[in-house]
Specification:
Strand content: 15-25%
Number of domains: 2
Number of strands: 8
Keywords: Ion transport, Iron, Iron storage, Iron transport, Mitochondrion, Oxidoreductase, Transit peptide, Transport
Radius of gyration: 50 Å
Largest sheet: 8 strands, antiparallel
Subcellular location: Mitochondrion
Structural class: alpha+beta
CATH superfamily of the largest domain: Frataxin/CyaY
CATH architecture of the largest domain: 2-Layer Sandwich
InterPro entries: Frataxin, Frataxin/CyaY, Frataxin/CyaY_sf, Frataxin_CS
Region (Disordered): 66-85
Shape: rod-shaped
Protein name: ferroxidase
Order of helices and strands: HHEEEEEEEHE
């Protein structure tokens, strides 16, 4: 084979080898670019769809359950005691009513003392002391200047009771209703408290006297 023919064959072989080596390189370079372009087109759609879905879901929860964001305040209303007023008593009326009340309490306490050796009762000069385990010592005394009966309880604390008449009506004479010693601040009745804390059952006092309109009379 002549030299020119050999040279031509070598050139053809080199061109074919160069084309064969370049083509895969170009192909390998194009495939990642196409894949990257495909990922860029798909990924933004997925990322953008998530915030839209979350924002709609939050709005739905707020609309369905508004109490979770703005709850109603609790009802802390407390029942107030009734509109009770102390009766206008003269000095004699107060002494009579308070003596009856103190005697009733003392009588019931002494009856309880007979059945319980740990109970002690002492009544002197208008002051009644009742030692009642396990509660403690109760002190009940008259207060003529205020026309009240005072109680010191180891459980409920100190209270001042006024004479209150209930049940008066147009068919009854003035002052002819049922009277009780009542703590006006909270409506507590003396007899009810003694029944609850000491177990003393004391009857109501029926007032048949007509209290004077002026407490100084």
């Amino acid at each position: 084979m002549s030299a020119p023919a050999t040279t031509r064959l070598m050139r053809q072989w080199l061109r074919r080898g160069s084309q064969a080596s370049i083509t895969p390189t170009i192909t390998r370079q194009l495939h990642p670019q196409a894949a990257a372009a495909t990922i860029r087109r798909v990924v933004p759609q997925i990322v953008l769809s998530q915030p839209r879905w979350l924002s709609i879901s939050h709005a739905a929860r707020a609309g369905i359950m508004p109490e979770s964001e703005d709850p109603k305040p609790p009802n802390d209303e407390v029942m107030a005691p009734g509109n009770q007023q102390p009766a206008q008593l003269s000095e004699d009326e107060y002494q009579e009513l308070s003596d009856v009340q103190m005697d009733l309490i003392c009588e019931k306490a002494e009856a309880m003392q007979e059945s319980r050796e740990d109970v002690e009762v002492e009544y002197s000069a208008g002051v009644l002391n009742i030692v009642f385990p396990p509660n403690g010592t109760y002190v009940i005394n008259k207060q003529p200047p205020n026309k009240q009966i005072w109680l010191s309880s180891p459980i409920s604390g100190p209270k001042r009771y006024d004479w209150v008449v209930s049940g008066e009506s147009m068919h009854q004479k003035e002052g002819g209703g049922q009277g009780e010693w009542v703590y006006l601040r909270d409506g507590t009745r003396l007899n009810a408290l003694l029944s609850k804390e000491l177990g003393l059952a004391i009857d109501h006092i029926e007032e048949d006297m007509t209290p004077s309109k002026d407490a100084t009379e």
